[in-house]
Write a structure and sequence with these properties.
Structural class: alpha+beta
Number of domains: 2
Shape: elongated
Radius of gyration: 22 Å
Distance between the termini: 48 Å
Low-confidence stretches: none
Helix content: 40-55%
Number of strands: 4
Largest sheet: 4 strands, antiparallel
Mean pLDDT: 90
């Protein structure tokens, strides 16, 4: 869980709210569910101990998603190779 901060309109006043969520979209949904649709004055921004982390631009988010996909596929390939090695070894034993 990550900490996100966003500005929310409550009865005409803008208040900064903190929420713990898995992603920026999840944080946005939690805040909209709690305070109503169109109540967000600013998008949620991830916060860490040192300060804030700016949200990724759409291009940066796309690249980050592709990198995660590449890592996941590499793990799947390695797992499949290990499975095939074990299968071959079991066939040789029997």
């Amino acid at each position: 869980m990550n900490k996100y901060i966003a500005s929310v309109r409550i009865r005409g006043q803008i208040v900064k709210m903190a929420v713990f969520a898995d992603s920026m979209i999840h944080a946005r949904l939690i805040l909209e569910y709690q305070f109503g649709m169109n109540s967000l004055a600013s998008s949620p921004v991830q916060v860490n101990e040192a300060g804030t982390i700016k949200p990724l631009t759409p291009d940066q988010a796309r690249l980050a998603a592709l990198k995660r996909q590449k890592d996941n596929v590499a793990k799947q390939i390695e797992t499949e190779r290990d499975r095939q090695k074990i299968h071959r070894a079991q066939q040789q034993i029997s």
